[in-house]
Specification:
- The chain is built from three helices and five strands; from the N terminus they run βαββααββ.
- The chain has 106 residues and is of the alpha+beta class.
- The chain has one domain: Alpha-Beta Plaits (2-Layer Sandwich), CATH 3.30.70.
- The strands form two sheets. Strands 1-3-2 form a three-stranded antiparallel β-sheet.
- A hairpin with a 6-residue loop joins β2 and β3.
- It is globular.
- It starts with a strand and ends in an 8-residue tail after the last strand.
- It holds the Pfam family ABM.
- It comes from Allocatelliglobosispora scoriae.
Length: 106
């Protein structure tokens, strides 16, 4: 999850974000992604991607197309934690399911 604050140049940002999303989508382990904008603060955007594992995400960042299109954009995101792992989920009306962490115990 990478968050951005865009104060002008919205169309250029969206074009770059689409290119970044396409580059990431082409990498092994990619599950889904979306570009979103806040309903409350239209200058706040988020590029959200979901991966099979933390390792798949990290390896994707090394791809040539990702380095050319996505990395420069991601470097402009807000300086905050951006990689999260899913530890619990629930489908509509379903039970909560959990999964173990991909992180090694420290």
């Amino acid at each position: 999850m990478n968050r951005f604050v865009i104060d002008g140049g919205e169309s250029a940002f969206v074009e770059r974000a689409h290119a970044a999303l396409a580059a990431l989508a082409a990498r092994p382990g990619y599950l889904r992604g979306e570009l979103t904008r806040s309903l409350d603060e239209p200058s706040s955007w988020c590029l959200l991607t979901e991966w099979e594992s933390v390792g798949a995400y990290r390896r994707a960042l090394g791809g040539f197309d990702v380095k050319i299109t996505a990395t420069p954009l991601l470097a402009e995101s807000l300086f905050e934690p951006c990689a999260y792992e899913r530890l619990a989920s629930a489908l509509p009306g379903g039970e909560v399911t959990t999964r173990g962490s991909d992180r090694a115990d420290v």
